């Protein structure tokens, strides 16, 4: 993957959203070392409410303990070098803040819990399920009280010149209709929601749809944010994550100068994306790559926040299921500059 570099000279990286309920210290240590070698960053993922509604207390405990366990290994970030560890989040089964008709969560005030435990941005959406909301292709603050169920159903779009105050921010990926999709050679329109999989690998044609979604901070349309996702440890999707389909896409994206006439590419992690978004809100312009560490910086592995932490016996003995370790990997091609004049 090091063969393809963005306009800042950085290679493609993933953000690994590791499932808190499948905590395994050995696996996380190995993944953290992989990330320290420059291949990405680890953030927080959570499946819960599977067999029945979860509770506020249990959700709070799980998120707090997992946050601290990651921070003790030099993962996650701090806001301007101080305070509690901060993190990005993806909800398992897309059921953010009990938005899936009561399934796969059960905690109406989950968004408030995320805010209280240091979540600066949620990257769950879009959702190929009943958890999908009406607001699409947007970056915004929740407009409803965070203690209500699914407060992200309504939102205030982020704007250049207005610094956001309500966290976590909601950062959506593209949700479009692909009218040129095919099935067994037949024209077969499908929903495009930014998934990278064996059955749906990244292509330049799909890139055109992602760009058409126009996900940006209002007033800074030249910075387009393209958030993609894959189930990174599902064996059948390995090739889409690191194999030939992704390599072919990166080669098409980066190597052919005739295809680069109208855009620049910046490979960023979800933390870096959030930082660039906030920089845009603060009125910054120019090269977005300069703002990767604008507000939330990676924890220094030598800092006090990384000292070993004591977590509950129940938590430390949890083990991942056989099908997953870092369940969701988020990747991004953005922000990209809009077509040049």
Describe the structure in brief.
This protein is α+β, with helices and mostly antiparallel strands and 341 residues long. It has helices spanning 25-39, 56-71, 110-116, 204-212, 238-242, 244-254, 270-281, 313-316, and strands at residues 14-19, 40-46, 77-79, 82-91, 119-122, 139-142, 155-157, 169-171, 176-178, 182-183, 186-187, 190-192, 223-224, 227-230, 296-298, 328-332, 336-337. The chain has one domain (14-311).
**C-alpha-based Rg, rounded:** 19 Å
Please report which band the strand proportion falls in: under 5%, 5-15%, 15-25%, 25-35%, 35-45% or over 45%.
15-25%
Task: Extract low-pLDDT stretches.
Answer: 306-326, 337-341
* DSSP helical segment count: 8
Main β-sheet, in a few words?
11 strands, mixed
Spell the H/E element sequence.
EHEHEEHEEEEEEEEHEEHHHEHEE
The tally of strands reads 17
Work out the helicity level.
10-25%
Task: Report the principal-axis shape.
Answer: globular
List the domain count as a whole number: 1
In round numbers, the mean pLDDT is 89
Query: What structural category characterises the helix and strand content?
Result: alpha+beta
Rounded to the nearest angstrom, the distance between the terminal CA atoms is 31 Å
Give a verbal description of the structure.
This protein has one domain (14-311). Helices cover 23% and strands 19% of the residues. It is built from eight helices and 17 strands. The strands form four sheets. Strands 1, 2, 3, 4, 5, 6, 7, 8, 14, 15 and 16 form an eleven-stranded mixed β-sheet that branches. The chain has a two-stranded antiparallel sheet with strand order 9-12. A two-stranded antiparallel ribbon has the order 10-11. Helix 3 (110-116) links the parallel strand 4 (82-91) and strand 5. The protein starts with 13 loop residues before the first strand and ends with a strand. The model is unreliable at 306-326 and 337-341 (pLDDT under 50).
